[in-house]
From TrEMBL, chain A:
One Pfam family hit: BPD_transp_2
Spans traversing the lipid bilayer: 238-260, 297-317, 329-347, 380-405, 426-445, 465-488, 495-513
Membrane-topology annotation of the record: Multi-pass membrane protein
The protein's name in its UniProt record: Branched-chain amino acid ABC transporter permease
Lineage per the UniProt record: Bacteria, Pseudomonadati, Pseudomonadota, Alphaproteobacteria, Hyphomicrobiales
Organism this protein belongs to: Microvirga aerophila
Signal peptide: 1-23
Keyword Transport tagged: yes
GO BP field: amino acid transport
Keyword Magnesium among record annotations: no
TrEMBL record, chain B:
Protein name as annotated: Branched-chain amino acid ABC transporter permease
GO cellular component terms listed in the entry, alphabetical order: plasma membrane
Pfam families: BPD_transp_2 (PF02653)
Cellular compartment(s): Cell membrane
Keywords: Cell membrane, Membrane, Transmembrane, Transmembrane helix
PANTHER family noted in UniProt: HIGH-AFFINITY BRANCHED-CHAIN AMINO ACID TRANSPORT SYSTEM PERMEASE, SLR1201 PROTEIN
Membrane-protein topology: Multi-pass membrane protein
Organism for this UniProt entry: Microvirga aerophila
Length: 530, 378
């Protein structure tokens, strides 16, 4: 038995030596690991990584994890499962030699290992791993990875990964002095098509000795990328502005209806928004307690409920307070302010003064990527929702009899009354409608803002600004007002900062009101001064 | 309508009561023993002084709202600006006694690593300059704001809303550290005024008396305005603005003049408020504060001047009591007050009392025509 094992061992050794005889750099490099010197290890590592041998990745991984072992000048890999492999052949190796020792590494070697890994995983069969490796090489610009990179590009089929690999190659070529200008120009073109901040940074690192046409191309490419990035940046800001504008539109559109029909500013409007948000909270709590499976639908259940709750409170306010104050808009303003304080304190007493947690359904989390834009789904949902509410209200005012009456009362209250419209009833309904819309705005805002008793307060001044800016002639004024303020706010923010931008905007509106005291879309005619 | 005399019965009563308070409060504070029922404790004196400064603010709002129909929801801004002007003087008086002991820079500037005093702080170590600024800054802002607004005939709720926007914008601005007004924390830790320590009892009594005197002077000024021919035109603007314009009056000039005067009164009120309270911060610019001032006037009786004083005292005394005894009910009470007064007592305490008095007189054989204020119309 013993002799047989010895023979086998000898055979394997012979086989190993035989492969050595006509072997490439991989086999030549391996014994250096056994020398137990960091510089030899590093040299061996470089040779192994560049060899393209199928086992090289396993060797580098093993080295990283301390599983590369040496005994008697031979190198072994201990697999994570515990099996011992011969590093030369990749075959299982019988009983472990007595003096087996792990190849030691220090930080310098560890860094080299990381770089080598990046190069080697370029050839991995997993597309995600290749992508990560390409990005790693792009950042490290390690020239040693170039051969592997070429190999990877040649057989890459995945378009995204191929692009990443090519820009990694471009990154390396750009910084190498001994590359022909044609290759460099191609690299610059490749980086230009990549077109992000990293590409700009890379282009600016072009070595000083580069030929003039290369330097010229690089600076042109950098400028092109920069202006393109600025464009995307502006587009992102416009998107933020549209999303803010939608929020303002939702908050202000109900106010525009009540202000338009009755000429009164409802200071408790913000509290209707808050009540809508708290309705969402209650609905979600009930769903969590009794039907957790329906959580995704919670917002759709909350919408009609919020409309009903806020709308009926609105009708109640109109019937008990506001109708006694017609013709006295300033007193109405004060009375509704008082009501807003009462509503706030009521909610604070019931639900406590702290923020309440309103959950986001799973379908609203995540983001949509359009070019370099990132559109989060909850913002997209709010923009779509605001547009839906706007169109619905437009249709209601245009095509229903209630809408006809509301428009008539808005234009000329006394004439409408003379034509047999019961203006009192229309007031109550319009007030209910405005408050209900505020309630559903609250459902939407509960997704992006803190649900606290002060929620309404933070929107009321902005809503006023939208309404006085847009004018009360029709809903389009509110839309234009909300979008203008939203986009202007977000475009000012990068230059002036959030607070200063807002101050500038408030001053601009105050000045605008001087030019057009009744807003952008003002009602014209005799009724205005009444 | 016959011209009213400057000192009618109401004015005499107001001035006598203020004079009485100016004498009685110090006397009861100093002369009586702490345990006695009549004693006014040391912490009550600045509290009463604070009420008087609020009353002056209410008076300034009543002057424009009650007599000219301008509902400003931003008068708190003028009050706070006056307060900041006074606060800047008091900050400079701290000198090297601050935490960082910088002889020139206030603590917050040292904290923000500022090297030099910003230009707009120059001169505030000199009291007369600060006193002029107390009136000039709110007056100038009101003049510019009013000049734009009244000239383009911004009226009614639109005016109310842009005044609210103005105070909101100022609040945001003063919250910024870069503005150089102490940011979030505002100005505080005052030590002395004109060399008198602010913590001492005698300084507090003097400040109280000064508040009473300023209120009386403000009342007389307002009284003089509303009883003059100017006041008649203002009431005409309130009741029928277009008609007044067609009669040939430059409505915007009248409005602008009274708005500016009113803002300066509010600034003075702020300047009296700050040394008695010991702090001024951007929270004073909050739109809610300005709306609260309007309700003081409405509670006391709009368009009566004396009512504004009464309302400010009653509501603030109520606030002090409520926030001490039933803090969670204060907002219910305040909100309810807004609704109650506008719905059921539109002429406020004083107006309602006057009406009752007039009715009682009418039942007796009449001696002279009633002299009540006509019902306000928008």
């Amino acid at each position: 038995m013993i002799s047989l094992r010895n023979i086998l061992q000898a055979f394997v050794l012979l086989l190993g030596m035989a492969t050595c005889a006509y072997a490439g750099p991989y086999e030549d490099a391996l014994p250096k690991f056994a020398a137990d010197s960091y510089s030899d290890t590093e040299a061996a590592l470089g040779a192994v990584a560049g060899s393209g041998h199928p086992l090289s990745l396993s060797v580098v991984e093993a080295l990283r994890d301390g599983r590369l072992l040496a005994a008697n000048g031979q190198i072994f890999i201990r697999e994570p499962s515990g099996n011992l492999l011969n590093a030369v052949t990749g075959q299982a190796f019988g009983p472990a030699p007595q003096n087996l020792k792990a190849v030691r590494i220090n930080n310098r070697v560890r860094r080299a290992v990381e770089a080598a890994m990046g190069g080697l995983t370029l050839l991995s069969s997993d597309a995600g791993a290749r992508m990560d490796a390409a990005r790693a090489v792009f950042r490290s610009r390690d020239a040693a990875a170039l051969p592997t990179l070429q190999q990877a590009i040649a057989k890459e089929t995945h378009a995204d990964v191929k692009q990443a690999l090519e820009s990694a190659r471009a990154a390396i070529l750009l910084n190498q002095a001994d590359v022909s200008p044609t290759d460099r120009l191609a690299a610059i073109a490749s980086l230009r098509s990549r077109g992000d901040q990293e590409a700009v940074a890379l282009l600016s690192t072009l070595p000083a000795g580069a030929p003039p046409e290369v330097a010229e191309a690089a600076s042109q490419a950098a400028a092109a990328i920069r202006s393109r990035l600025e464009l995307w940046n502006a587009a992102q800001n416009v998107w933020y502005g549209i999303s803010l504008g939608s929020v303002l539109l939702l908050a202000a559109i109900g106010l525009a209806i009540t202000f338009g029909t009755m000429g009164v500013i409802n200071m408790a409007h913000g509290e209707m928004v808050m009540i809508g948000a708290y309705t969402t909270f209650v609905v979600q709590e009930l769903i969590r307690a009794y039907a957790p499976g329906m959580f995704g639908a919670s917002l759709f259940i909350a919408l009609p409920l919020a409309f009903l709750v806020a709308g009926s409170i609105g009708v109640l306010i109109e019937r008990t307070v506001i109708r006694f104050l017609y013709g006295r808009p300033l007193e109405t303003l004060l009375a509704t302010w008082g009501l807003s304080l009462i509503l706030q304190q009521t909610v604070r007493t019931i639900f406590g003064p702290t923020n309440r947690e309103v959950g986001t359904p799973a379908w609203m989390s995540g983001a949509l990527e359009v070019g370099s834009l990132s559109l989060t789904y909850n913002r997209v949902a709010i923009v779509v929702f605001a547009a839906t509410v706007f169109v619905t209200l437009l249709l209601v005012l245009r095509y229903t009899s209630l809408g006809l009456y509301v428009r008539a009362v808005t234009q000329n209250r006394r004439m409408a009354g003379s034509m047999g419209i019961r203006t009192n009833r229309i007031d109550a309904l319009a007030f209910g409608l405005g408050s209900g819309v505020a309630g559903i705005a609250g459902v939407a805002l509960s997704q992006i803002d803190n649900v606290s008793p002060n929620l309404g307060q933070s929107y009321i001044i902005d809503s006023f600004m939208v309404v006085v800016f847009g004018g009360v002639g029709n809903l389009w004024g509110t839309l234009v007002g909300a979008m203008t303020l939203g986009v202007a706010n977000k475009l000012l923010e990068p230059y002036a900062g959030a607070v200063l931008g807002k101050i500038v905007l408030l001053i601009a509106i105050i000045l605008f009101i001087q030019r057009r005291p009744r807003g952008l879309f003002a009602l014209k005619g005799r009724a205005v001064e009444a | 309508m016959k011209t009213q005399s400057l000192l009618d019965r109401q004015a005499v009563i107001v001035l006598s009561l203020l004079g009485l308070a100016a004498v009685l409060v110090p006397v009861l504070n100093v002369m009586t023993a702490p345990g006695s029922a009549l004693h006014i404790s040391d912490h009550l004196v600045p509290l009463l002084g604070k009420y008087l400064s609020f009353a002056l603010l209410a008076l300034s709002v009543d002057l424009i709202w009650g007599f000219c129909g301008i509902l400003s929801l931003g008068h708190g801004a003028f009050f706070a600006l006056g307060g900041y002007a006074m606060g800047m003087y008091l900050m400079r008086q701290i000198g090297p006694r601050g935490v960082y002991a910088d002889p020139i820079l206030p603590d917050f500037m040292v904290f923000l690593n500022w090297k030099d005093l910003p230009w707009f702080w120059y001169g505030f170590d000199w009291f007369p300059y600060a006193a002029i600024m107390v009136l000039l800054v709110p007056g100038a802002l009101a003049f510019v704001f009013g000049w734009f607004a009244f000239r383009s005939r911004v009226t009614g709720v639109y005016l109310s809303i842009i005044t609210q926007a103005m105070t909101f914008a100022l609040m945001l601005a003063f919250f910024r550290n870069d503005m150089g007004f102490g940011g979030n924390n505002g100005l505080t830790d005052f030590k002395e005024i004109l060399g008198f320590p602010l913590q001492s009892e005698s300084t507090r009594i003097v400040l109280f008396v000064l508040s009473a005197v300023a209120l009386a002077a403000g009342y007389l000024l307002c009284r003089w305005i509303v009883t003059s021919k100017l006041g008649k035109v203002l009431v005409a603007v309130r009741d029928a603005e277009s008609r007044t314009r067609f009669l040939g009056y430059r409505v915007e000039h009248y409005k602008l003049a009274v708005f500016t005067v009113s803002a300066m009164l509010a600034g003075l009120a702020g300047a009296l408020y700050v040394p008695q309270v010991g702090i001024i911060n951007p929270g004073e610019f909050a739109p809610a504060n300005s709306i609260e001032v309007v309700i003081w006037v409405a509670v006391g009786g709009r368009g009566t001047l004396a009512g504004a004083i009464l309302g400010a005292l009653v509501v603030n005394a109520g606030k002090t009591w409520f926030t001490g005894a039933l803090p969670e009910f204060w907002l219910f009470a305040l909100g309810g007050l807004f609704v109650f007064v506008t719905l059921l007592m539109p002429r406020g305490i004083l107006g309602t009392a006057q009406d009752a008095w007039t009715r009682a007189r009418a039942r007796l054989p009449s001696r002279s025509a009633p002299n009540a204020l006509p019902h306000a119309a928008e």
